[in-house]
From TrEMBL:
Stated family: Belongs to the EMP24/GP25L family.
Domain GOLD: 1-64
Gene: TMED5
Major subcellular location class: endoplasmic reticulum
Protein name: Transmembrane emp24 domain-containing protein 5
């Protein structure tokens, strides 16, 4: 997401480890992309060469789902537990609840981070608008002062006696 900069747009490229283009966005202000990953190094690039005069502030977040979640890792805890099937069932329920809370908490953190990025972009736009309104208000004030001075001068010139008096 582009937070600040002229036009609020940027090009985005995502390349696979094989060098294939997976995503290409041209002059977008924000975007969300989901990619099935394979082993290797991915390359992503934010390109602002079309607007070399203005710099951009960009927020991005890389979310990796299912990292390190092998089926074996979740079953390791079972070998330490001995007891009845009822106990195993309760532990499985607890583990499922904990994983559910963890997933929801992670999703909440992601949403809050995204909302902070939106807030930062909107604040930059508001500050830019504030500066623009102040500038044009000062220009308007200057024009009004000049016009009032010209009107006073013109009004005085109407009442001046331009005849030469003979004494």
């Amino acid at each position: 997401q582009v937070l600040d900069g002229a036009g609020l747009d940027v090009d985005f490229h995502l390349l696979s480890p094989k060098g294939e283009t997976l995503v290409f966005d041209e002059r977008k202000s924000d975007g969300v992309h989901t990619v099935e990953a394979e082993d290797g190094d991915y390359m992503f690039c934010f390109d602002n060469t079309f607007s070399t005069i203005s710099e951009k502030v960009i927020f991005f977040e890389l979310i990796l789902d299912n990292m390190g979640e092998d089926g074996q890792d979740q079953e390791d805890w079972k070998k330490y537990v001995t007891g009845t099937d009822l106990l195993d069932m309760k532990l499985e329920d607890i583990l499922e609840s904990i994983n559910s809370v963890k997933a929801r908490l992670s999703k909440s953190v992601q949403i809050q981070t995204l909302l902070r990025a939106f807030e930062a972009r909107d604040r930059n736009i508001q500050e830019s608008n504030f500066d623009r309104v102040n500038f044009w208000s000062m220009v308007n004030l200057g024009v009004m002062v000049v016009v009032s001075a010209v009107q006073v001068y013109m009004l005085k010139s109407l009442f001046e006696d331009k005849r030469k008096s003979r004494t």
